Amino acid sequence: MAAARMYVIVIACLMSLSHQQAESAPWRSRGVHRRSMQAQSDEASLRAALLNPNVTSFDLTRNITLTASLPYRGSSFTLNGKCAGSRCVISGVKRFSCFRGIGSWTFSQVIIQECRSTNRSLADAGGAAINIGNGISSGSLRVSDSIIRWNTASFRGGGVGVWSGRLNIERCDFIENAAQFGGAVSLNTFGRAYLTGSNFLRNRAGNAGGAIFSFEGTVNETTNCRFEGNTAGRTGGAIELQMSYAYTATLAKCTFIGNRAGLAGGAVNVADFHVEKRFCSVTWQNNTIGTGAVNHVSVGPSDLSITTGVYFCPDVPQGITVIETRFGPYIKTLCSGCPA
User: Where is it chiefly localized (predicted)?
Assistant: First the structure.
């Protein structure tokens, strides 16, 4: 009997130990599972918020890796990064487009990366990471204290695209985004941009506007920004300004270093004279074209009548190219209108 009891006790102990081990190992796997489910839940929650017109703001508390493109939203939206100790990351894993919609959108404290857009429609604002507005409806966008990096678009706006609305960028970094037009930013059809304290680094455009491409819009005010190492296959290594109809473009206290364009405008290409272009206390260093020649700013050609000029303060720098001689008299030193 004593031997039988001992046998039962041993078996009971072995079963208890086996149960504890079974609990211990799956506990770690369930932890992984829970984290995976949490990530999926975060993505699902963001999708649900974008699809619900009654939800106007979303606080992101964890990084998200997308499993599909985010849905289009037909109204205003705010995304606040609330990740502990760092900006929240949203990744399109080089496969999916990220934020698209109309209305007034706001982003803060986020990193949006590796988003991809293959839309080549002329009625599309562009913007693989953030695309606001379309050929029918306008939109506005404010991005602050964020990073937009490693995004690609087949057509325009590798990072951000805005159609017929206001774009505010404050204290942001645009890094290594790519498109045919506007590697980092595309501004279309009466769009207006206000850029402050931001960096545009190593963005590239196959055609024009390595960092920023503005067509029928205007970079109204760009202050204390740095454009470095951006490239364009043809014109506007950092910025391309085309067909600006309504608003004066002012770039103040900015730095352009080592930007390059294949044909013209190593840093900036000005392709119209319809509104004033002001360059106020701008630093120019080693901006070149395909031949290796220093070419900070190229002016022309333009199919618009000459109604204004391109002004520099305190002086017109070396490295300015005038494509058509008729534009020469309209390139002047003028500090009126420059911010203090």
Answer: other
Asked whether residue 288 is assigned to any structural domain, the reply reads yes
Residue in the structure block whose two tokens are 């998200």 = 64
Instruction: Give me the amino acid identity at 22.
Output: A
317: in domain:
yes
- Please tell me the predicted confidence (pLDDT) of residue 30: 30
Enclosing domain of residue 215: 63-333
Question: How is the beta sheet containing 72-73 ordered, strand by strand?
Answer: 72-73, 99-101, 130-132, 160-163, 185-188, 212-215, 239-242, 268-270, 297-299, 320-322
For 100-136, how does the pLDDT look when each residue is reduced to its tens digit (9 = 90+)? 999 999 999 999 999 999 866 554 557 899 999 876 6
Task: Please give the helix or strand (H or E) that residue 331 lies within, else none.
Answer: strand 331-333
**Of 159, 219, 220, 224, nearest in space to 198 by CA:** 224
Q: Is residue 339 part of a domain?
A: no
Strand partners, 187: 162, 214
pLDDT digits (tens, 9 = 90+) for 169-196: 999 999 999 999 999 999 987 778 999 9
| Spatial CB neighbours of 305, under 8 Å, sequence gap ≥ 6 | 273
In terms of Cα–Cα distance, which of 122, 239, 82, 117 is closest to 174?
A: 239
Per the CB < 8 A criterion, the answer to whether 110 and 90 are in contact is yes
Q: Does some domain include residue 243?
A: yes
Structural domains counted in the chain: 1
The helix/strand/coil state of 309 is coil
pTM score, two decimals? 0.86
The mean pLDDT value for 50-77 works out to 96
